[in-house]
Amino acid sequence: MSKAIIDDVAARAGVSIKTVSRVVNRERNVRPQTRARVEAAIAELNYRPRLSARSLAGNRSFMLGLIYGKPGAHYVLDIQEGILEICRPHGYELVIHPGEFRDGDLVNEVSELILDRRIDGVLLSPPISDHMEAIGLLVEAGIPLVRIAPTIDKTAHPFVETNDLEASFELAEVLIGLGHRRIGFITGHPDHRAVGLRFEGYRKALRAHGIAFQGELVTLGDNRFHAGEEGARQLLSLPSPPTAIFAANDEMAGGVIKTALAMGLRIPEQLSVVGFDDAPISRQVWPSISTIQQPIREMAKTATQILLEQLRAGEAEPHPSMHPARVILRESIAPPRTQTS
Amino acid sequence: MSKAIIDDVAARAGVSIKTVSRVVNRERNVRPQTRARVEAAIAELNYRPRLSARSLAGNRSFMLGLIYGKPGAHYVLDIQEGILEICRPHGYELVIHPGEFRDGDLVNEVSELILDRRIDGVLLSPPISDHMEAIGLLVEAGIPLVRIAPTIDKTAHPFVETNDLEASFELAEVLIGLGHRRIGFITGHPDHRAVGLRFEGYRKALRAHGIAFQGELVTLGDNRFHAGEEGARQLLSLPSPPTAIFAANDEMAGGVIKTALAMGLRIPEQLSVVGFDDAPISRQVWPSISTIQQPIREMAKTATQILLEQLRAGEAEPHPSMHPARVILRESIAPPRTQTS
DNA sequence: GTGAAAGCGCTAACAG
DNA sequence: CTGTTAGCGCTTTCAC
């Protein structure tokens, strides 16, 4: 068990502790020879700088914070692991903060994170990435942040994004291309703005193909499975039900599938279904769901890289970064039945 | 923005910093009156002790570590949030470490966690809770730990557990009670020992009801959806296929359902399916899966409480704690068809 | 019960 | 390029 401290290393290498510090912190202005000696000493003693000491003296914590909403377990975990993959090798730890969008506590939690933990930087995942109050707090405190997939106010802060709108336009076009004209839509949670863009993509596709938008074909969802079930029940009970349903995420698309099957419909023969996210559920239901794959993990990695760079440079440029999503076609779609019910 | 430090508080309250420290740390031997004065000063100044300073001086980090394997996103997230719910109010942060069971790096990561971060205590979730090498390392370093749902060596360390074996015995009995005699089983990942107990429960139930165990009705799984698909394909292709399939977790049960439906079978009329975990997927497929609900989040909470208590007391008693699981019946089961295929 | 002094192990100025 | 001197803000002795 190594109890070596910086003085031990300095003594062993025959230099001052400051030089050791320089080597550890990868500062320049150290003769290669000296650096090598110090590094050898570090290795021999299995020295590791005590984080708390570094934090106290250097006034930084080597910790990053992730504040996330609740957009589904796999989404959060993907982001989390994407971040870790990048920040660990750079000596940064991650502390995680679940936060409810509408919860007043979020603001408290954020200030706690800043005040107590002296977090060096923060990553905001949807829908918190649109929580301007929390962002304001961070900015005020001078804490660097990167927003993951924000939809509003995309000017002042660095962020990473994907093309929700274009991708859902494309997916809607696939349905139209198959011959569907009555296409239902189940919207996402209103707080989760990125999901709102998917609705835009759907409308834009209708417009582009001269199909009139019909309000009765839209139901309000909240990103959860249950909303898909409800929405499907509602849409499929219409006098003239849709031949296809586009749910704003896979979770809800799964709900649509379950309800449709329970109602005795055959998919895709009698109803086509598409979702969004390429969530596990899209592969696990039968029939599997056509969807859109978002590079969530990659976005998280890029966001972390941007954040670390900012910490290094002290800069805070907007620095946007785009990770395109792509359509994935599976079993849940087919041309609409000609005529008959 | 509060920049108050302990000296400010001491001055404001007219006491020495040591007394402030005593109040902050809830030590006894402070006159109630003095305590009140100090607390008032703390509130007025919105003082929050700087963690890094506390860590450096007190030689503890106020951070807990979670080392987890990969037993599915919802499982991990449940554990994570259970831990946070308890440790946050006590001023502890959580740092998370994904770790592969078979990965040699796990040991390195653990020592890093100990050496660099001076983690105060560690929670081990399955299957890492059975990783005796990692545990040995922690013990050697004198880091308190609590194991979540371990299956081996349950003597030396505190742990929380559930009754996997009894619960699956019960679930298997439900199938037998319905009249099933040929019941297939898809086993879990061999590293994930807790899941192994579910197989034991199944065998025990067969034995208890005088049904001969048949090796051909068992396939080896790995807890993942795909293994359920494969296993079902194999079992349902037998000359005399099972009338029911028990998968060691819901993920695999979902795979069974998908495959069975794709093969044109009707569930539960032609095949009953049960799983384990009460994972979201068990509610989201059609028909929904009968399963066993484990109090995962509760286990995590109890584990954290035990850990915090240990940190306070400096004790490390085995201190086991049992959270019973319970059977949940849903649409996926029915009596076997009499006679005909 | 309370306080004074002495660090915890490191980084941040400044010298050289 | 390298070393010296001060702290960072708290907890710990050990007095009183």
Automatic annotation (TrEMBL), chains A, B:
HTH lacI-type domain mapped to chain residues: 4-58
Alphabetic keyword roster: DNA-binding, Transcription, Transcription regulation
GO molecular-function terms, A-Z: DNA-binding transcription factor activity; transcription cis-regulatory region binding
Name assigned to this protein: Transcriptional regulator, LacI family
InterPro entries per record: HTH_LacI, LacI/GalR-like_sensor, Lambda_DNA-bd_dom_sf, Peripla_BP_I
Annotated organism of origin: Dokdonella immobilis
